[in-house]
Structure to design on (76 residues):
């Protein structure tokens, strides 16, 4: 989507980190910033079964370790 926006094909609604370099280089600019809600990070939905597969558990643990919490994002 970022590439398409750079080529003039329209507006790209993407997370900041996807377009950060293009914005910094002057290839894109932020528009409608007041209309875009701030996302508090990643959301992961999974079954509430007691036994979560080991691969999924490892992924969840990785996200918890590496992603800032919604409170940390709001304080920035």
């Amino acid at each position: 989507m970022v590439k398409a926006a750079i080529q003039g094909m329209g507006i790209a609604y993407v997370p900041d980190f996807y377009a950060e370099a293009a914005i910094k280089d002057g290839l894109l600019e932020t528009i409608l910033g007041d209309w875009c809600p701030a996302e508090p990070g990643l959301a992961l939905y999974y079954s509430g079964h007691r036994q979560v597969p080991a691969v999924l558990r490892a992924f969840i643990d990785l996200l918890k370790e590496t992603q800032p919490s919604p409170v940390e994002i709001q304080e920035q």
User: Anything to note?
Assistant: Residues 1-37 form one domain. Helices lie at 2-6, 16-24, 54-66, 70-75.
